[in-house]
UniProtKB/TrEMBL annotation:
Domain Glycoside-hydrolase family GH114 TIM-barrel: 43-259
PANTHER family named in the record: ALPHA-1,4 POLYGALACTOSAMINIDASE, PUTATIVE (AFU_ORTHOLOGUE AFUA_3G07890)-RELATED (PTHR35273), ALPHA-GALACTOSIDASE (PTHR35273:SF2)
Lineage top rank: taxon: Bacteria
Residues making up the signal peptide according to the UniProt record: 1-24
Name of the protein: Glycoside-hydrolase family GH114 TIM-barrel domain-containing protein
Keywords: Signal
Signal found in the keyword field: yes
InterPro entries from the UniProt entry: Aldolase_TIM, GH, GH114_TIM-barrel
Length: 264
């Protein structure tokens, strides 16, 4: 009698356990999955002016500081994925956290008003500052991050930066994004693509056609990862055919990166 009564709870427990086990992989894949943009996907890149949310493309790249959670939500409501633009390799004197950067990590200007290269070797200083910025992107609901100025070692920064320093810093930046469930793109830094393509989910490039460098981005395409590409000085007739052949997501923009665009 006791055994007969004990069987149903035991069977129910086993069934519940099996059901739980069967459901675990799907649950984990949903919670751990990051957005992975594929080659050729259309995009809009707007870093100045009021964001025009009417552009009919699947991906937007907008300024992480200047744009609000409401803007990100509005784009999500239209079915867009949204990338958070941040400068991670250069200091910008107008950002709300600018006073938190000690002078010891500020180098030479990078050619843009109010911007100076950062000493990326000083991860003890920069990691918490960048982590706070990535927290902001996550909290606003962004799907990914575009970290800019990721090739300081190739420029006159005022610091003796080496390729190894850049690799270490870029991988740190990728980890900060991934730890927060966001995808991350490698900005320019063409020479280190072979070492970094596995750490980043897509690439962002400026003017590879003008400088004859677009073929260097093929490791991302071969890995089924998008390459978001813009030109500023070439007409679309000079680069769109090659972009389509290489499966790049290409468009012509103006330097101020307002709403205007001309896609391939």
């Amino acid at each position: 009698m006791t055994r007969a009564l004990s069987r149903p709870p035991l069977l129910l427990a086993l069934l519940a356990l099996l059901a739980g086990c069967a459901g675990t992989p799907d649950d984990e894949s949903r919670s751990d999955a990051r957005w992975q943009p594929r080659p050729g996907v259309a995009w809009q890149w707007q870093l100045s002016g009021r964001v025009d949310t009417s552009v009919d493309v699947p991906v937007y790249d907008i300024d992480g500081f200047d744009q609000s959670k409401a803007t990100v939500s509005a784009l999500h409501a239209k079915g867009r994925k949204v990338i958070c633009y941040l400068s991670t390799g250069a200091y910008e004197d107008w950002r709300p956290d600018a006073k938190k950067f000690p002078k010891s990590v500020l180098g030479k200007g990078n050619g843009w008003k109010g911007e100076r290269w950062l000493d990326i070797r000083r991860t003890d200083v920069l990691e918490p500052l960048m982590a706070a910025r990535f927290d902001m992107c996550r909290d606003k609901g962004f799907d990914a991050v575009e970290p800019d100025n990721m090739d300081g070692y190739k420029n006159r920064t005022g610091f003796p930066l080496k390729a190894a320093d850049q690799l270490r810093y870029n991988r740190l930046i990728a980890r900060l994004a991934h730890d927060r469930g966001m995808s991350v793109g490698l900005k320019n830094d063409l020479d280190q693509i072979p070492q970094l393509v596995g750490d980043f989910d897509f690439a962002v490039n400026e003017q590879c056609a003008q400088y004859g460098e677009c073929a260097d981005l093929t490791p991302f395409v071969k890995a089924d990862k998008a390459v978001f590409h813009v030109e500023y000085e070439l007409p679309t007739s000079r680069f769109c055919a090659d972009s389509r052949r290489l499966k790049l997501s290409s468009m012509l923009k103006k330097y101020e990166l307002g709403a205007w665009r001309r896609a391939c």
